[in-house]
Design goal:
Length: 557
């Protein structure tokens, strides 16, 4: 019996996931424990293995697409098993042949009954069923706000052979120009919307089927009237692609779903205030990024001024020189970059923290002369290398032991004071920020902290952190000092009650024993949740932290 596999919840904060890579294709044999796909969550990209054995009958989320937790991800079952009932959410029909025939007849009748507006040479359908093997493809909804689409370019023409996965056309929506793939294999029998013409979502886009199929008795009128699009809507009847087995059992393919298939190479649209809408082919955009070419400076030679590969290869930057008089000339361009799952979660969680927890900030400047000398002495030992950040993490862990209220969490019913100390260390990665956790950091030595931070940071940048390695922090350290930032404030990493922002060590004049001398200082800022940490409590924590960092020998006591 076929088994439905849904989008798994791979982290405690995960609400949706993106299929980064499918490692199995429809029709492949799957064994229990095989890796089905790599799924990008808000924190990492993880391998997802199968708990079932059988044949991969259906993929519900295409590579590069995003779906909510528990959405249909895949179906595994016996080869050739009827899964139409699972796809439609209804029990499977007793007779696949009768179910498909009835659905096909009803779908074709609905198509025939649709009015055709302003279409030349309009004909009336006299057939109530599609010919065997014919599939109707409709204008897909490629964005949540899309109401109609424009065919920017057909990559296939009538009479061409089409294989499943081939790019049929490039479709311009209200947000982007996207490559549209075919679900099915067959001959392109009819094009419903010419290049440059527009049609509403669900309007007839194309018809696929066996070569030479007669469509004269079916109402499949062309739509080529531009803005006055023919509103011929293909009914949504989900069914698997036609297979040799389905042909053998005389199961007539039904109308395809109008759900979109977005290619991973979907290209963003650039809007021009003076010149209207400009388009860029996916390959041209990729080449421009590799060559560092600003697309705003490129003139497109393709259809409707579209920038294509040739334009990028032949692009020559304007010569630099002195102009007699400067005149501002250019194109306002925005590049649309889809938000990753990590970016979405960062925005959500930090927004919740900033607007629910009453933040306040305490800043102190630390004398780092003794800390620098201590680090030099420690690193002089063979095989030992620690950073100033490792010393700060150790000092914070020890200070939390003396000030447990800072090591707390707020809930509506109670304040939870953690008896354990798990230090979160913020790590910048390509898509944003992750916070791996050092468990029981107060019990670790400088060298153990240094090795653990290095290992976790490497995993974070490679997107190999496990959920366990990112959960359970009770306090967080964020260090931008290595980037030359002298002082900054951070947003609390809830459910923590505080986070320490660490700036750069700077050389400056300081006063010591009444004399001005050259010294080294470092500024740290403690952000506290006022619901759990009072001002005096935060200040006392910083006093202890100052003692540990300015006199590192006290951390060995």
């Amino acid at each position: 019996m076929a088994e439905i596999i849904t989008m798994p919840r791979l982290s405690d904060t995960m609400e949706e996931g993106t299929v980064a890579t499918w490692l199995k294709n429809v029709g492949d044999t799957v064994k229990e424990g095989d890796i089905l796909a790599e799924i990008e969550t808000d924190k990492a990209t993880m391998e997802f293995e199968s708990f079932y054995e059988g044949t991969l009958l259906h993929i519900g989320v295409a590579q590069g697409q995003t779906a909510e937790v528990d959405a249909l991800l895949a179906i595994i079952g016996a080869p050739g098993e009827d899964i139409s009932g699972l796809l439609s959410g209804q029990p499977a029909a007793a007779s696949a042949e009768s179910t498909s025939s009835e659905a096909t007849s009803e779908a074709a009748q609905k198509v025939a009954d649709q009015p055709v507006a302003d279409a030349p040479n309009q004909t009336t359908a006299t057939t109530s069923a599609l010919p065997e093997g014919v599939s109707v493809i409709t204008m897909p909804r490629l964005s949540d706000t899309m109401e109609e689409g424009t065919v920017a370019r057909w990559l296939k023409k009538e009479g061409d052979q089409v294989s499943e996965g081939d790019i049929l056309a490039e479709i311009e929506t209200d947000k982007a120009t996207m490559e549209f793939e075919s679900f099915y294999s067959g001959t392109l029998l009819k094009i419903g919307i010419e290049e440059g013409s527009s049609a509403k979502v669900d309007a007839l886009l194309a018809v696929l089927g066996p070569a030479g199929t007669d469509l004269s008795g079916v109402n499949l009128e062309q739509t080529a009237s531009g803005a006055s699009a023919t509103e011929v809507s293909a009914p949504v009847v989900d069914t698997p692609p036609v297979t040799e087995q389905s042909k053998a059992s005389e199961v007539t393919p039904v109308v395809t779903s109008s759900a979109p298939v977005m290619s991973a190479a979907a290209s963003a649209v650039a809007n021009s205030a003076d010149q209207g809408r400009r388009f860029v082919s996916p390959l041209a955009r990729k080449l421009a990024q590799e060559k560092g070419i600003n697309l705003a400076q490129v003139t497109g030679s393709g259809e409707h001024g579209r920038i294509i590969k040739r334009d990028i290869e032949q692009f020559v930057p304007a010569a630099m020189g002195m102009a007699p008089a400067f005149q501002s000339v250019g194109t306002e361009v925005f590049e649309s970059v889809p938000n990753s799952q990590m970016r979405k979660t960062i925005a959500k969680r930090l927004g919740e923290s900033k607007f629910t927890a009453p933040h306040y900030y305490l800043t102190v400047e630390l004398d780092m002369d003794h800390a620098m000398a201590a680090r030099t002495a420690i690193n002089a030992q063979d095989g030992v290398k620690i950073s100033f950040n490792d010393m700060v993490v150790k000092a914070c862990a020890m200070a939390l032991r003396l000030h447990p209220k800072v090591n707390s969490q707020w809930t509506q019913q109670e304040t939870k004071i953690a008896k354990h100390i798990h230090m979160g260390v913020a790590v910048a990665v390509e898509d944003g920020l992750v916070v791996p956790v050092l468990k029981f950091a107060d019990q670790m030595s400088f060298t153990q902290i240094g090795a653990a931070v290095k290992d976790l940071a490497g995993k974070a940048r490679a997107k190999k952190l496990t959920p366990e390695e990112m959960q359970g922090s009770t306090f967080t350290v964020s260090n931008l000092g290595m980037f030359g930032i002298r002082e900054f404030t951070s947003i609390i990493n809830q459910p923590n009650s505080a986070i320490l922002s660490v700036g750069a060590i700077v050389e400056k004049p300081v006063v010591k024993q009444g004399a001005i001398v050259v010294g080294h200082t470092m500024t740290v800022t403690l952000a506290c949740d006022h619901r759990t940490v009072d001002g005096a409590t935060g200040a006392q924590f910083l006093q202890t932290l100052r003692q540990y960092i300015e006199q590192p020998v006290t951390m060995f006591a």
